[in-house]
Each structure stands twice: as C-alpha cells, then as structure tokens.
Amino acid sequence: MPAYRPWSQGYHPYNHPAPVNGLAIASLVFGVLCCLPGVGLVLGLAGLRQIRRRGERGTGLAVGGAALSGAGLALWALLLATGGASALWHGFEDGARGGRTLTPAEGECFDAPGGTLSGDTYDVDKVPCAGAHDGEVFATVTLPGGPYPGDDAVADTADERCRSLEDGYAMDGWAVPRDVDVYYLTPTGDGWAAGDREVTCVFGNTAEGEDLTGSLRNDETVLDADQVAYLRAAHVLNAALDTAPDEEYVEDDLPGHKAWAGRVSAALGEQARMLRAHDWPAGARGPVTALAAGLDKARAQWAKAAQAGDADAFYEHCDTGFDLIDPSRGVAARRALGLATTVPAGDDGSDASLQV
C-alpha cells in the first residue's frame, strides 16, 4: 500500500499569514493624530523589534508611524522654543469659548462685525477712539466661579455691574450723549465651561448702525482735581436718588418713599459739605457757594418729606425738593469749572440728568 506524504506547513492550502504587530498599528495611529508624537515614536521602535523577533507583519506601519511621530515631535519642540505652542493653545481655548475674542482693554475702541452690538459677537477690530467706532470699553468684570447660572442670570449680573461702573469712567454724565447706552459682552455656556468668566462693559450708540466719535472717558486721567471734586460730590446725590422704591406711587408704599427721602436728605447734606470743604479756584468759588446754599434748602424739604404724615404732605415737600435740585442750578458752577453745561434731557429725571 503506498505511503502518502503529509502536507507540510509551507504548502497547506489554508495557511494563516503572520499577524500584524499591534504596536506598529498603534504607532501609526499616534503618528497620524500628532497628539502624543513621543508615544508614537516609542511604539514604532518597539514594534520593529517585536516584528524581527516574532516574524510578524507591520514593518511599514511601524516605520511610517515612527516617522510621522518623529516629525510631530520635532514640530512640537519648535513651537515650544518659539512660543507658538502657547499661541496655538489660546486659539483652541478661544474656540472652546464660543469664538469670543474681544481684545480691546479699558479705554480702547473697536468695530463689531456688521456694525452692531447685539446678538453674538465672535471677533472685533480695534480702532482709534478719535475716529468713528461702534463701541468703547469702559470696564471689565470677572464673575465668580461655579456652575453656569444661565444666560438671563449672567445678563442681569452684567447689566447691574456695568451700570455701577459707568460713572467711574464717564464721571460727568452731562458729557455723555443721550443716544449712548451701556452694552456688555458676556460668556456663553460653552465659554463658561472653558473657564471664561469675564464681562466686558461697553458704551455704544442706541441707534442701529450709528457710530460713536471720540472717547467718552472723563475721569481722573482726563479731568483736573477741581472737576473731579465737583463730580464726586454730585455722585453722592445721584446714588441716593437711584435708591427710589420700586413702587412708583407714594400711596402704594409711603414708608418706602419716606425712607428714600431720608436718604436723599442725608446725601444733600453730604454733597453740600463736600463742596464747602474743597478749595475752589477764584472763578468757581462764588457759583459753588451759591449752589451749596441751594442744596441746604433742598435738604430741608427732603427731610420734611421723610417725616410726612400722609402722601399729600410727602408730595408737597418732595416736589419742592426736586425743584431745588433742578440740574440748571448747577450750570454756573460747571461753566466756571470747564465742565459740560448742556442740561441732559433725561427721560425720567433720574441718573446723570440730576447731576447739579
């Protein structure tokens, strides 16, 4: 009976090819991604050693992965040496913040995309304040950490904080045009998750498409000591007037209005004291002294309003008190000090229009 020769391994019709080395595959993946080039290079070299020892496939993968990783490692080294890595990271960080890249600092002006300060803003161009521009940054605010409070809560906080800071940048409310209002740039939810907590407070024109021209800054860096002293005294009264009760009608909250009148009376006394304490230049001494005397009379009326027994008595003294702090009474002193003299046309007789 003939003997049959068995099939050898080399001639088996279903011979399994040698496996592909896993380190070679991983090396190529890291080389293509370039996220960890050092890892890809190490894996490629280790994969070549295993391939030679085990007879596995994947030499091309290991060589390619090691080459790509080596190039990536050299690129990262170059970026670190030149500072490019930092710039690259900030680019990614800005992207994570929803594209917000407002670069102007306090006192700088800019143009916004489309010339509007509403909606989403992803980039702005700094321009000189002397020429036409869309906005002027007057303050920045850093919000506290914690979970994102929501768009409405962030906007409410931004509005409150920015409006509390506008007088520090534009001390003379009379010098701010009536068509200028406060805007703000706030972080989005995605930006908050990336660490963005900054609110940028901006002056802009309320008329769509209209520009600002010239800087609105008038503070200690622009005004002289006499002008600053006068405006600081005026701000004491304005701050008290801003604390009026939410109830518009006295009949709806007489105790609240009486407490408010007491605060205004105290502020008028402090304003008069500050005006008398300053050493004014000769040309302004007379007008300021006359103004302080008028504030004393106003203080007495507001004090009586604070003690009023009913709404009618409150209205009587409050109306007289308002007449005695009419903004026009401060024009002579302002003219002598070189401040704005055009009385603002306030919508409700509040805020800057009450600076006397």
UniProtKB/TrEMBL annotation:
The chain crosses the membrane at residues 20-48, 60-79. Residues 23-79 form the DUF4190 domain. Pfam families: DUF4190 (PF13828), Septum_form (PF13845). Residues 107-227 form the Septum formation-related domain. The keyword Calcium does not apply. InterPro entries: DUF4190, Septum_form. The keyword Kinase does not apply. It comes from the Bacteria. Keywords: Membrane, Transmembrane, Transmembrane helix. This is DUF4190 domain-containing protein.
